[in-house]
Amino acid sequence: MHPRGQAEPSDERILTDAFATLSSNAAVRDDPAAARALEVIAARLDPVAERKQRRLARAAQIVNSSLELDEVLRSVLALAVDVMNAERGYLIFREGRRVAAAHDPSRPEGTLDEPAQAIVARVLETGEPVFTTDAQSDPDWNAHRSIVTLHLRSIACVPLLVRDSVIGAVYLDSRVLPGLFKPGDRELLIAFALQAALAIENARLFADERSRLERISELQAFQAHLLEAIASGVITLSAGRKITTFNRAAESTFGTPADEMIGRGGEALTEYLPDFDDLLDTFFNSGAISLRAEVEAHKEDGSELVLEIRLAPLQMNDGTGAAVLVTDVTSQRKIEESFSRYLAPHVVQSLIHDPSSIRLGGERKRATMLFADVRGFTALAATLSPERVVEILNGYFEEAVRIVFEFDGLLDKFYGDGLMAVFGPPRVRGDDAQRAVAAAIRLHEVVRELGPRIAYPLEISVGLATGDVVAGHFGSAQRMDYTVIGDAVNLANGLQSAAPPGCIYCDEETFRSAGPISRQVHKLSARVKGRTELVTAYAIFSET
After folding, report:
1. 480-485 and 460-475 beta bridge pairing
2. Cα distance between the two ends of the chain
3. DSSP 10
4. Domain that holds residue 428
5. HEC letters along 201-239
6. What secondary structure, in 3-state letters, does 310-333 show?
7. Are 497 and 465 in contact (CB under 8 A)?
């Protein structure tokens, strides 16, 4: 089909168009038989037209030979200007970008006048090519200012089409020669523009992909720097459990270089983490749900470690892998172990995790107080050597502290041969009195079991009282203790002094709050030091 108003093409024109189409096809050019057929056709064509076709076919090859857009477009446009003997040439794109070339190489792009804007606008809008052999006398264009001002004569402008979308235009012109572009040039330039448009689209896609890869590369570099800056060890494993990342902190933790670990299976970590295979199995068998564990490990040199291991799912190209965060808590655990010999466990935790939380002051809380004292200690000290007394007391205190901690009590202090414990603060619970009574009963049992081991019979008495106290840090900014102050403290101390050996005295509030007691209980009135009136107490006997 041909546009209305145009004559049917001649045989020469049809032959020229066919040759242009076949010459631009790489598969045809590379086939020997097809190449010979092209030579036969070329022999029947006008020599000048044939040379144009060959050179524009060469331009099409150049367009498709590289993905470096700027270089290709400039060289191809220069070739198109030269082949068509145009004075100037432009590649103009919708987004405003423009590439220019002149027949005279001495004229740089910046010195060239603007193209015929009206014609360019028409082609970009309609997607139809425009050819005029003498624009000065062409009634469609001779009234346009840019054409008159620039004295343009021959103009050819064809669209750059990609999937029926106009992305730009190829523009050629001459101010000197009318009739510069021959009838066969139309199809040649349209074919050239189609090839150029495809090359531009491919180059743009390539540039976008390269930009994406560069962003990915930058992100990977950032992630690598971030991993190296993290104080904890970071190890990543693929879905196939291969080690893919082993950061500097992991190197320091285990004492082994990353290049000796990356690429190996996750089982390589069992050299340092004996439980690691089991942790991985648990993690993956549970559906890659985040997992935390504290495990014993060792470094390359055999040094013992305590590590906190956290496993989290990590989406990778080959499926779900694992991100392993390794935190060395060896020093922290040693500090906790050392300080727990002197301070209450919750105080140790507060010091380690939030040193600023330790400040002077207290708050009202409900507590059950426990006082336990070795009876007959004065006689014990008078008949044995000091070293032997210390040995016996340390044996007793070792067991007494274990019992207090076993029932979640807070060891407040030692005083001579006695100890004071708190059940409640800093975390008050509903069963504080029940656990205090159970601890007191167990203390009596342990003392009886301890006698044969230390080769000396001991007896203790225990006092319990429940009520409101003020719990907090008391002392000075340089030296403070966590303790409790209140009437329940004094009452428990007084009940302990009043209780006979082998017995537990508790006040009415403790008895009521503790619930059923699995020992003999007798209600009585006790005289407590510091109180003028008798105090109602409940005697709990440690043996059933």
Report:
1. antiparallel
2. 115
3. P
4. 359-541
5. HHHHHHHHHHHHHHHHHHHHHHHHHHHHHCCCEEEEECC
6. EEEEEEECCEEEEEEEEEECHHHH
7. no
Cα gap 202→64, rounded to integer Å:
9
pTM: 0.44
221 in a structural domain:
no
Q: CA-CA distance, 366 to 187, in Å (whole number)?
A: 98
381 and 473 share a domain? yes
Q: Evaluate whether 173 touches 155 at the Cβ level (below 8 Å).
A: yes
Q: How far apart, in whole angstroms, are the C-alpha atoms of residue 222 and residue 402?
A: 51
Element housing 92 (H / E)? strand 88-93
Residue 138 one-letter amino acid: D
Residue 152 to residue 146: CA distance in whole angstroms: 8
- Dihedral sign (CA 448, 451, 456, 461): negative
Q: Residue 248: give its domain's CATH number.
A: 3.30.450.20
Question: Tokens in use for 344?
Answer: 């209450």
Per-residue pLDDT tens digits of the chain, which is 544 residues long: 444 444 454 444 455 456 555 655 656 656 777 766 665 665 554 555 555 666 666 655 655 566 677 777 777 787 778 777 888 888 888 877 777 776 555 555 555 677 888 898 899 999 999 988 888 888 888 778 778 877 888 888 999 888 888 988 889 888 877 777 777 778 878 887 887 788 778 877 887 887 777 776 666 565 555 555 566 788 888 888 898 888 888 888 888 898 889 889 888 888 888 888 888 888 888 887 888 888 888 888 888 888 888 888 888 777 888 888 888 878 777 766 655 654 556 556 655 665 555 556 578 889 999 999 998 877 777 788 888 888 888 888 888 988 998 898 888 888 888 899 999 887 888 899 999 999 999 999 988 888 777 777 888 999 999 999 988 766 655 565 667 888 899 999 999 999 999 899 999 999 999 888 878 889 898 888 888 889 899 998 866 5
Neighbours of 485 (CB within 10 A): 13
We report the CATH number of the domain holding residue 72 as 3.30.450.40
Tell me whether residue 76 is in a domain. Answer: yes
Q: How many residues make up the chain in this entry?
A: 544
CA distance 30 to 379: 117
Dist CA 155 CA 453 (whole Å): 115
Which of 262, 260, 233, 229 shows the shortest CA–CA distance to 245? 262
User: How would you label 296-334 residue by residue, b for 16+ Cβ within 10 Å and e otherwise?
Assistant: ebbbeeeeebbbbbebebbebeeeebbbbbbbbebeeee
CA–CA gap between residue 211 and residue 217 (Å, rounded) = 10
> What is the β-pairing status of strands 503-507 and 460-475?
parallel
Residue 408 Rama label (left phi>0; alpha psi -120 to 50; beta): left
Residue 5 belongs to a domain? no
Number of domains in the chain: 3
Helix (H) or strand (E) holding 297: strand 291-298
**Residue whose structure tokens are 């743009």:** 204
